Amino acid sequence: MTQTSPFQHLEGLLGSDVMLLNACITEAFQNQESMIPEISSYLISAGGKRVRPYLALAIGKMFQSRTPKRFLQAASIEFLHTATLFHDDVVDHSDQRRGKKSAHLVWGNEATILVGDYLFAKAFAMMVQLEDPKILAILAKTAIRIAEGEIVQLNRAHDLTLSHEDYIAMISGKTSILFEAATETAAMLAGQDSEISAHCGQYGLNLGIAFQLADDALDYDSDQRTLGKNIGDDFNEGKISAPALYSYRQGDDKIRAFWQRVMQNKKTDGDFEQALDILQSQGVLPQIQEDALRYADLGIAALDCAPDSPMKEALARCAQFAATRSY
Amino acid sequence: MTQTSPFQHLEGLLGSDVMLLNACITEAFQNQESMIPEISSYLISAGGKRVRPYLALAIGKMFQSRTPKRFLQAASIEFLHTATLFHDDVVDHSDQRRGKKSAHLVWGNEATILVGDYLFAKAFAMMVQLEDPKILAILAKTAIRIAEGEIVQLNRAHDLTLSHEDYIAMISGKTSILFEAATETAAMLAGQDSEISAHCGQYGLNLGIAFQLADDALDYDSDQRTLGKNIGDDFNEGKISAPALYSYRQGDDKIRAFWQRVMQNKKTDGDFEQALDILQSQGVLPQIQEDALRYADLGIAALDCAPDSPMKEALARCAQFAATRSY
């Protein structure tokens, strides 16, 4: 358990960049209206793992980028991400986020929505300061696609007939396209051409998909419960995710009827245990992990655009970790 | 009642620009996810008076601007404004907006928040397409100030001790700075230098303040009730606005105690009638109109930066109308 994760290894390689990013983030949410830094810092400075900004900085470092704008770019991605988390908390009525009580339960829906808006506007302003029209165009398009993705998810969150492609598109909108934008624009800022930058974007996109598939599987992984982790959140909220979709697609009429009932929130005691048994009998979780690894491999292959280096190796290991992580 | 308002006169002078703006707006909210155009159009295409985009186009026309980007600029301002309206509806728990049932009552908080996010992102993307770093910097700063203004309003909405300056700052954040950004960046897009553009911004800012002060007064104007209009919304929500603040500032202990009680939502029957009597005895509404006219005059004076023209005259009349309108 004390082993260093690939992500911690990458953080180590970033060296002083981590501190400079922190300074940039902390400065950006200073405001005389004290509610703004108070609520912003609740998610940003504390528990957040900063996966997106670290990956962006790592891509920059892989290309030996020296521009100080890379901290602004990485911080703006984290602000955009945090803005969506605040609004997600209100929309999903979540109880917990990053191991803490959800913001809307601490400050109320009103303040949570408005601080989300503030962080969104601040992210926009930071992106504008990058003074690069091509980067701005990508980030603007990404913000639109994230909002679209959230709306798709709202409308189809209980739809078991979603095709595999539509599900991947949905989790891309929710998670992966911000990874893509983070890594693609980091390469652009590091002076790489549009082809190499697009490859770096593919690295981020596929890592993001692998990450989300693994996340979906972990929520139904009884080994997690043995480790004292909370599982079954998606199930309890009637939210479709990879395990339910894979099982439904392969299941007989009885299994399909089961998923239809529980995803409409008509659950009774013991349903979650039955779900775990069904997944076990179908071998669904290993299938999901296999798919996640396939996406991770696509991401790793995209890194071929860059010369070999310890940072490239660290990025590759992070993609694999995203697919296979057990926490 | 069939008389043409100064605003309708300005719309007439805009000619085909109005149609081209409509086309730009309608195209911008097309989306395969049908909920997006459905909810967006609820506020944008229907009842909205489009004050901000029309003023922006009018400034452009006053300077004989020919750039097609002016429709994108005007539409982006309307999208940003509409995004804030959607979030306001959720935050304020409003029942009505632009004479229609509030969006959150029709589609629920979740969809209203997310479509607001979509419009915000779309506004951002449209601004980026203007490809002008100076304009972008102003618009980004404006988006931040609007979000800050909303948070200030949330925290001080019941604070009767707010100074006049702080109140003007609060309504500026809420209303006027978007008018300022709309008119300033319209002048910039029309090729005017930063000094002239700043004057145009001052026109918009002061018109916005006049508009909001008049709006505050109308909500306590019993003549409105005679005309069949709804009044007393701010009072019923315990939301401070100019009438309550002016009266509190000038009132004796008894009057102050009255406002303190009713603004804490400890209201009883007949309180609103008593409020109207107090305002009448203090002569508060004429004072507010006088102040509104003072701001309108500041706005009109700022138009001195432009040569005389029918459009300049129409803009001046709009500012005066914003302060004196009775509907």
The profile of the biggest β sheet of chain A is:
2 strands, antiparallel
Using the CA coordinates, give the radius of gyration of chain A.
20 Å
- What number of structural domains do the residues of chain A give? 1
Level-1 CATH class name of chain A: Mainly Alpha
What structural category characterises the helix and strand content of chain A? mainly alpha
At the fold tier of CATH, the topology name of chain A is Farnesyl Diphosphate Synthase
Poorly predicted segments of chain A: none
Query: What's the N-to-C terminus distance of chain A?
Result: 11 Å
Number of helices of chain A: 16
Structure characterization notes:
2 copies of one chain form a homodimer. With 327 residues, the first copy, chain A, is mainly α. Chain A has a single domain (6-324), classed as Farnesyl Diphosphate Synthase, CATH 1.10.600. Helix content of chain A is 75%, strand content 1%. Chain A has 16 helices and 2 strands. Chain A has helices at residues 6-14, 16-28, 35-44, 51-62, 69-92, 103-129, 133-156, 164-189, 194-218, 222-226, 233-237, 242-250, 253-263, 271-282, 284-302, 310-324, and strands at 96-97, 100-101. Chain A has a two-stranded antiparallel sheet with strand order 1-2. In chain A, helix 5 (69-92) packs antiparallel against helix 6 (103-129). The mean pLDDT of chain A is 91. The A-B interface holds A 31, 33, 35-36, 84, 87, 90-91, 109-111, 113-115, 117-118, 120-122, 124-125, 128-129, 131, 133, 136-137, 140-141, 143-144, 146-148, 150-152, 154-155 and B 31, 33, 35-36, 84, 87, 90-91, 109-111, 113-115, 117-118, 120-122, 124-125, 128-129, 131, 133, 136-137, 140-141, 143-144, 146-148, 150-152, 154-155.
